[in-house]
Amino acid sequence: MLYAILCYASEDVVCSWSKEQDDAVMAKLATVQEKYARAGKLGPVARLLPTTAATTLRKVKGEAVVFDGPFAETKEQFLGFYTVDCDNLDEAVNFARELSEVNPSGGSYEIRPIGVLNRVAATI
Question: What is the Cα–Cα distance from 56 to 109, expressed in whole angstroms?
Fold first, then answer.
């Protein structure tokens, strides 16, 4: 079963890290990722740019309206995701737990099964 591990944390906290601090966190996360990658269980991983770079399209009275910024005002922002192929939810939770143990952001990881709609290969 494919799972999306969605990463949420405060952008204010994560964006305040020095390059050295950020590099250290990324190295620790890469160690966790590497184990799953070697087992052939890790799919795409992405770190999103800050919400200040976001654009949202929302239907307003039946019309598509484009807004600058994220879709919601929250204390935590959606910062990135992992795609992981796990045998069951327990394995996906364990992966998220390992990420959480090395990530000092104090954020959360949302674990959601993926229902694949289209397996067209990406060309980017």
Answer: 22
Helix (H) or strand (E) holding 49: none
Evaluate the CA torsion angle 20, 24, 26, 27 in order and state its sign.
Answer: positive
Task: Answer yes or no: are the C-beta atoms of 4 and 99 closer than 8 Å.
Answer: no
CA distance 119 to 114: 12
Question: What pLDDT does residue 57 have?
Answer: 78
d(CA 13, CA 40): 32
Contacts of residue 84, Cβ cutoff 8 Å, sequence gap at least 6: 2, 3, 5, 36, 41, 42, 43, 92, 95
Task: Kindly report the pTM of this predicted structure.
Answer: 0.77
